[in-house]
Amino acid sequence: METIKVLLVDNEEVFREGLAKLLEDQPHIEIVYHCSSGKEAVEKGLDTKPDVIIVSSQISDGDAIETVKEMQKRSPEAKIAMIARPEERVNPLQILKSGAKAYLAKNISATDLVKSIELISSGRIIVSPVFADKFLDEISATEKDDSSKAIDTQSSPSDREMEIVRLIVEGCTNKEIAQKLFIAENTVKVHVKNILTKLELRNRQQLVAYAVLRNWVTADRDESM
Question: What angle do CA 144, 138, 61 make, to 5 degrees?
Answer without folding.
Answer: 135
